[in-house]
Amino acid sequence: MRFYRLAFGFWRGASSRTAWLLSLAFLACLFASMGLQVAVTRWSKYFFDGLQAKDISVLQWSVGIAVGLAIATAIVAALLKQAHMRLQLRWRTWLTDTLIARWLGERRFYQLTILRGIDNPEARIAEDGRISIELFVDIAGGILNTFLLSASFMIVLWTVGGSLTVGGYTIPGYLVIAVVLYTGLTSFGMLLLGRPLVSAVAHKAAGEGDFRYALTRTRENAETIALIGGDDDERASTMESFGELAKRWLVVIGRQTRMVFLSSGNNVIAPVVPLVLCTPKFLSGEMSLGDLMQAAAAFGQVQTALNWLADNAYNLANWSASARRVAELDEAFDELDQAADARGRETIVLEDSPDGAFHIRDLTISQVSGVGMLAESDASFQQGDKVLVKGESGSGKSTLIRAIAGLWPWGSGHIQRPNNATMAFLPQRPYMPLGTLRTAIDYPAADTPAAAGDIEQVLNDVGLSHLVPRLDEEDSWATVLSGGELQRVAFARILLKKPDIIIMDEATSALDEITQARMMELVVERLEKSTLLHVAHRPGLEKYHNRTIVLERQNKGPAVIAERGRIRGIGGRFARWLDRGGGKSAA
């Protein structure tokens, strides 16, 4: 039901005009196609009656009519395919845009990785979204076609077949009764054999997602795996994942084999049934050859139409599984929103600072389950403060900076950031977008692109001058560059953009001590007015910060923020920075 509420939004709002036009075109083509199929059965009677009467003129006219019907059928079929596929494309485009907007909005893409309740959201958007829309249009068209054909050809069967007298009893519309009973029997058998197929296909779809994730995980960690010689282990793990998928496939194969056994036998017997039922009336002269052939064609059309659902059991199962996975993703988005609404004051509130400084007021941070990580704490940072954040492992340092960045909503209290402040986040492994190296350094792109000379200068400053000639090359830079080069690219970004707030999480872990010192000196000298919050364990970093805060656990419970001194006088470049006024707020 949730899938219907989500997907049928295509017929509301800005997309409604396109949705209704394509839907009406699709329906019109279906009706036209049905009318032509009825006309073909009428042609069959006309032709075979002429053949029985050996009327040459009728046969000649039949050939001309057949050509006209063929041309009309080809035109309608082409229009039907256009309307059918365009409806699928436009609907899928709308659904994809809707799901991506929800996934990437309000940082839900990050929160889903924390909750871990939804596997492979990208596969649900791409693959399951495609299947759920494409098969829905196919199934809806098939069901509508079933009703149209059944109703039309049952009228033909009732008219042509008439009644049959057996043992003194007259059975009106006996061909209609026969086709309903025969189809009901075969459909019941197909549904009985195919009923477990729905869960089997859903299980297989989940296995496909797990296998894709295993391959993606190997690709993303290719360098580490290669360096530690984990090739054989990864191959074994990946094949184990595929082996599980193969087992699920075997279940699906078994279910489908049973259904093919029944449907194949039915395909042979079904055309014979109407001929056997009509033969007595043909031999007695109550039916002409044209009536016999028309009745047989109509019987076949009705039987095929009524068996459509059973014949498409696999598609129905596949659609059901994909629609359920899309609905689960949409439900997860709603749960995130509802949880945020339900928390009310318990949500960490991000708001503008009243005085231009950076404040943490009554901040508590908890896990998704509600277990506390940081007890009620306060801290204030002035513009230009360089703050080193320390604490034992598991005390919540990384979670604290994620809360400050707006990624972690679970908890309570207020984080007050300077109004319209720009923020940069430097993780341990920086993100590199697809495209040229120039694009990667000027990421995220501003309204006005950075000047070429500025980009070249910051690359020289961070020791990446060898990359200047490659600025306009497109490559997979996340794998081409080493870990240390990637971290220096991140420093180049902040030197280029000069954000108001910089949040660093082990951002120098891949650098040697000399390079680390150079990067931190550049931050101190070039970004005097930027507020820095730096989570790090490596020694030797204290001298590049004028404040240190520590997250301390109390009685094995949640940690609290404690101030561990403000550094006033330090030699070297940082001292010159303090002399210019950068340390006034700390004094």
Q: What number of domains?
A: 2
CATH homologous superfamily of the largest domain - what is it? Answer: ABC transporter type 1, transmembrane domain
**Rg measurement, Å:** 35 Å
Unreliable parts: 568-587
At the third CATH level, what is the topology name of the largest domain? ABC transporter transmembrane region fold
The termini sit apart by 62 Å
Structure, explained:
- With 587 residues, the protein is of the alpha/beta class.
- Helices cover 62% and strands 12% of the residues.
- It has a 6-stranded mixed sheet, sandwiched between helices. Strands 3-7-4-5 form a 4-stranded mixed sheet, covered by helices on one side. The chain has a two-stranded antiparallel sheet with strand order 1-2.
- A hairpin with a 5-residue loop joins strand 4 (358-366) and strand 5.
- The protein starts with a helix and ends in a 5-residue tail after the last helix.
